[in-house]
């Protein structure tokens, strides 16, 4: 049996989950196609997914598929389309062998699809494109092909056409029905195959089919099919094309490594905590235990009886323990205290290095919400709930404020946090109090270079901190730095550094000050007791540096890019709402079927609640996509 891991990626509401549902039906896994509107799909089973009509969690489906060139077991991965859950998409890429990118006819290539394609190109994953909703928009997809060429830096090849009967025809099924120019397009990426085709006038070998098999894996060919996930037109042909295409080659692991890639983490009443993992090679399970013994020195018994081993690898279909894993066949690995199961990374042995923490630091979120249990005695209960939430989705992070005892939940966006809160409140009558969503902000030093003389006197001017001459200037980023152009005793340097950082904790607007450097030019140390001098020096720096903040800092926060697809009839009211939120409109253009597509930028704090307001303004028809970031190059200046 050949296993093939296939990811389905798309912009939100392009028909990704509908396509998954249709594939399951065509493969005989379900007896009827479920409906997103009715909440009856196989992929979206969480209550939040059913209520909102969007995917918020990656789902995995194993389906058999027969073709004229072999039998396959497809491991279909349906990914969330909303930007708040993008980490679930990137975590999967290392295991993806081929990707189906779903595009909506008439809408061009939308923002989230563009981001996904950039990630897929970077990961060198073969792509097959499916232009969906042709039952509604017929031939309105030329703009999509033009947009694809711009993103891919290469021409996509349209391999479907309308036949004489009015039905769509597909190249792989019958290449002879297509014009010669299409065959030449398919062959154009390989001079060798093109030359072989010319040297075979009899046409005994169809070299275009060889080019179609190998080109996507080389990153040289981007085949495009079209159809309708809702009606099923083109879906069977799409799967045949995906399986015909050679998958991405996998790198071999050494015997001292775990050749298991973690794709996602789950909790099950029967299995407990486990990870969905992708084996990158065939290997007996016994070797995993020996690797663990070697790296952790646990002293485990060397035996092939899996019941005596602490590691449990489970077959997802039968839920039986395995003694052997097969390359490409997804399996479940139960949580183990000596293993790190971090989505997007290979399984590894735990060390003193906190991998989970480092993972969170790579992409810190500016969104958070403060939580307080109604009863202090229930704090441990809620901590357990939050920890379970973070286990399934490491995009959530919880900290406890030492000074107040409050719990703070960080998430990747407004929707991400809202859903996180709803999920921990499920199936319990216990009560939580929580704040509104907080968005990180800082004070940024304005462009300046200001020379200061800092000194503080006490005890009727008999004691002095000494005269410190320094320059306060802005940096090229959000950092805080201190530089010494004079040699000083270590205790004096430490006092200056700690005082400077403390002065930056609370600026004029009450936020931490960033983007500044203190350059110490000279210091005249007074005579007298060192401890008194250091105390007075601290006062001098705190007072002197803070005195400069009111007129020299500005309040900044994350910037949000928003894409909105809305009926032209509702465009005016949406623009009015964005104006009220101080959004800057970047572009507006007409899409299809009376739809307008607009892009805008606004401070993230101004766009809280915008998605819900958009639904209300447009009677549920309007769709928005938002991306928030907070870097030196990408931030909003807030009203002061």
Automatic annotation (TrEMBL):
Molecular function in Gene Ontology: GTP binding; GTPase activity; translation elongation factor activity
Domain Tr-type G: 1-250
Keyword Ligase: no
Top-level taxon of the source organism: Bacteria
Keywords of the record: Elongation factor, GTP-binding, Nucleotide-binding, Protein biosynthesis
Single Gene Ontology BP annotation: ribosome disassembly
Gene3D superfamilies: 3.30.230.10, 3.30.70.240, Elongation Factor G (Translational Gtpase), domain 3, P-loop containing nucleotide triphosphate hydrolases
Protein name: Elongation factor G-like protein
């Amino acid at each position: 049996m050949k296993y093939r891991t296939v990811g389905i990626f798309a912009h939100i509401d392009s028909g990704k989950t509908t396509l998954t549902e249709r594939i399951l039906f065509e493969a005989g896994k379900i007896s009827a196609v479920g409906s997103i509107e009715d909440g009856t799909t196989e992929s979206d089973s969480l209550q939040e997914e059913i209520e909102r009509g969007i995917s918020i969690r990656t789902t995995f489906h194993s389906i058999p598929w027969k073709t004229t060139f072999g039998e396959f077991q497809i491991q279909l991965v349906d990914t969330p389309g909303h930007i708040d859950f993008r980490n679930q998409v990137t975590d999967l890429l290392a295991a993806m062998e081929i990707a189906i990118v779903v595009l909506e006819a008439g809408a061009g290539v939308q923002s989230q699809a563009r981001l996904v394609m950039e990630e897929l190109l970077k990961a060198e994953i073969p792509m097959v494109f499916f232009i969906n909703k042709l039952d509604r928009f017929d031939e309105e997809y030329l703009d999509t092909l033009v947009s694809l060429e711009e993103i891919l830096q290469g021409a996509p090849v349209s391999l479907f056409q309308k036949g004489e009967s009015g039905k769509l025809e597909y190249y792989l099924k019958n290449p002879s029905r297509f014009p010669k120019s299409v065959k030449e397009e398919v062959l154009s990426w390989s001079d060798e195959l093109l030359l072989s085709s010319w040297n075979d006038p009899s046409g005994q070998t169809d070299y275009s089919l060889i080019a179609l098999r190998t080109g996507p894996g080389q990153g040289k060919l981007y085949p495009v099919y079209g159809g309708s996930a809702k009606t099923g037109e083109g879906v069977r042909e799409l799967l045949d094309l995906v399986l015909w295409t050679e998958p991405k080659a996998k790198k071999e692991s050494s015997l001292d490594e775990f050749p298991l890639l973690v794709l996602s983490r789950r909790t099950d009443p029967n299995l407990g905590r486990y990870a969905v993992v992708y084996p990158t090679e065939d290997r007996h399970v016994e070797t995993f235990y020996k690797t663990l013994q070697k790296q952790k020195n646990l002293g485990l018994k060397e035996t092939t009886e899996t019941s005596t081993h602490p590691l449990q690898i489970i077959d997802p279909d039968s839920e039986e323990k395995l003694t052997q894993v097969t390359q490409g066949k997804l399996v479940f690995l139960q949580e183990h205290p000596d293993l790190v199961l971090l989505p997007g990374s290979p399984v590894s042995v735990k060390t003193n290095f906190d991998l989970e923490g480092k993972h969170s630091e790579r992409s810190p979120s500016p969104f958070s919400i403060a939580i307080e249990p109604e009863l202090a005695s229930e704090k441990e209960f809620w901590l357990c709930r939050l920890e379970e939430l973070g286990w399934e989705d490491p995009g959530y992070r919880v900290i406890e404020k030492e000074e107040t005892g409050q719990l703070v939940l960080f998430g990747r966006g407004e929707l991400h946090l809202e859903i996180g809160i709803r999920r921990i409140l499920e199936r319990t009558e216990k009560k939580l109090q929580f704040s509104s969503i907080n968005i990180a902000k800082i004070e940024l030093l304005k462009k300046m270079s200001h020379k200061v003389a800092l000194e503080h006197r006490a005890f009727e001017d008999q004691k002095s901190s000494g005269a410190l001459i320094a320059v306060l200037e802005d940096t090229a980023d959000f950092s805080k730095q201190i530089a010494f152009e004079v040699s000083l005793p270590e205790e004096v340097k430490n006092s200056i550094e700690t005082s400077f950082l403390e002065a930056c904790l609370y600026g004029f607007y009450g936020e931490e000050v960033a983007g500044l450097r203190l350059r110490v030019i000279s210091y005249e140390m007074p005579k007298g007791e060192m401890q008194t001098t250091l105390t007075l020096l601290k006062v001098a720096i705190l007072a002197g540096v803070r005195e400069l903040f009111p007129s020299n800092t500005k309040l900044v926060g994350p910037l949000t890019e928003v894409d909105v697809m809305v009926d032209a009839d509702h465009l005016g009211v949406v623009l009015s709402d964005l104006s009220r939120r101080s959004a800057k409109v970047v572009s507006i253009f007409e899409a299809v079927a009376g739809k307008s597509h607009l892009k805008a930028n606004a401070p993230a704090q101004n766009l809280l609640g915008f998605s819900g307001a958009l639904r209300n303004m447009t009677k549920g028809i309007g769709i928005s996509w938002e991306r928030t970031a907070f870097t030196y190059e990408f931030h909003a200046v807030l009203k002061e």
